[in-house]
Amino acid sequence: MKRRPFLITLGSLLTSCKLALGDAVDRQFRVTLKNAHKGTLDIDTQLLDSYGPPPANLRQFYLDARKVFADNPTAEFTDQAIVDAAKHHRLHLMGGPMLGDLHSNGVTIWLRPATTQTCSIAVAGKTFQGQVDHPGQALRLSITGLAPNTGYDYQLHVGDHLAAEGNFTTAPLDTASDTVRIAFGSCCHKIGVHNLNLFRQIVGRHPHAMMLLGDIAVDDREGNIAMHRADYQLRDVSNAWRTLASQVPLYASWDDHDYFNNDLSGVPKRFTDADRDGVRSVWHENWNNPPADDQRDGIYFNTRIGPIEIIMLDTRSCRQNSRRNRYGSYLGETQQAWLKNTLQKSNAPFKIISSGTMWSDYVSNAKDSWGSWDTEAREEIFQLIEQENVSGVLLVCGDRHGARGFRIPRPSGFAFYEFEPATLGGVSGPAGLVKDCPDQLFGYSGTDDKGNDFIAFGEFTFDMAADDPTVTFRLIGQHGDVFEEIPLVLSDLTPA
Question: How does pLDDT run across 200-243, given as a tens digit for each residue?
Fold first, then answer.
């Protein structure tokens, strides 16, 4: 089913976010990453308005809520002052809808109602309902009973009010020979969350889902949980974010700036286990990842989208700082064992494994990533894949603020492929091309020679119809330019 333009609202004023990929939207304010990290009221307001402000009532609600979060370090979305602000501005939703946890028969829809009225989602003649005990709580509604690999429109009502509309395509069956498209990106920061040009391009390519690989919506809040929540509220009132989240199921992992601050991991000095628990809790509250089937400490998970196993790692909160350069210090031994078990059990032809930082050591001498933390654990994973002939592994990563692709050759003659899909926020970092690196496939810096932002996302298109199924990587810019296109076949990604 071809997707149609959608209409979405977070209040009494309906805002049209049509998907026509016509004229680009001019950026009104250019906020640097350094200033985004500061996150003052003036800077956050410029970010909100950078591609055109949201509706006036929604904008003022954010400013009112942000003040509550800034004045009270224990403030939550359910605080009465925030609930009163939502009521004053006649909002039915504080956030959402956000799609996630896609399956062949349905999807989960996340929202944050501003009321305890019944929320109902109508899809294909079916109605799914739920409500929260208190305004401001997150609500997830599981949509089921749908046909595989089929496009659906949905309507979201809060009480009798039409609050939002959107659409999605269900996943294919695991054994189907359909084409599957997975988008992915990294280092959005608070800058890229508002880029309507970028998110329109992603939505317009109709991916089944998108993986977000860290540094997404929170910037350097140093464990101030209230300001984490303020940054998520900034995300949820963004015109651009609502365009993306209501139409593309999202799978998210974090990196250092989502966590505490630059290069921080585990339980850093001056922080406690309780601080880490608090950051993990607010993360789970504000994303729509598949639920884990155990009580794991980290935010790692796996799921299946047709022929693809999605494996997203927590490469921040499980690190053990006092054991750096020893086995288990990067993922933690529990997550390491889980990853090995997940790879051994998966019968998906293709697997995408994400790491917040880079798998290879080519850039910045493996700064803050596998090669400067736990080469033994990485080698154990690589050897397991080779020895057990685990098929179709694709490695994706972020952190280093550029678009790069590498082969990682192995002594056995096999090679892994690693893709870093540039920054969704367009921020500078190390040079895109590594000197004297014959295993680099391509490289783009965060900014070009003229100082323009290089903003792009990655895309895998899986074609399962051939005898040797293929996956094609594309690097796609915010205005639709395809900068790189690399086809690979399943046999090339499977140890002999």
Answer: 999 999 999 999 999 999 999 999 999 999 999 999 999 999 99
Mapping DSSP onto H, E and C, the string for the chain reads: CCCCCEEECCCCCCEEECCCCCCCCCCCCCCCHHHHHHCCHHHHHHHHCCCCCCCHHHHHHHHHHHHHHHHCCCCCCCCHHHHHHHHHCCCCEEEEEEEEEEECCEEEEEEEECCCCCEEEEECCEEEEECCCCCCCCEEEEECCCCCCCEEEEEEEECCEEEEEEEEECCCCCCCCCEEEEEEEECCHHHHCCCHHHHHHHHHCCCCEEEECCCCCCCCCCCCHHHHHHHHHHHHCCHHHHHHHCCCCEEECCCHHHHCCCCCCCCCCCCCHHHHHHHHHHHHHHCCCCCCCCCCCCCCEEEEECCEEEEECCCCCCCCHHHCCCCCCCCCHHHHHHHHHHHHHCCCCEEEEEECCCCCCCCHHHCCCHHHCCHHHHHHHHHHHHHCCCCCEEEEECCCCEEEEEEEECCCCCEEEEEEECECCCCCCCCCCCCCCCCEEEEEECECCCCCECEEEEEEEEECCCCCCEEEEEEEECCCCEEEEEEEEHHHHCCC
Q: What is the pLDDT of residues 375-433, one digit of tens each?
A: 999 999 999 999 999 999 999 999 999 999 999 999 999 999 999 998 999 988 999 99
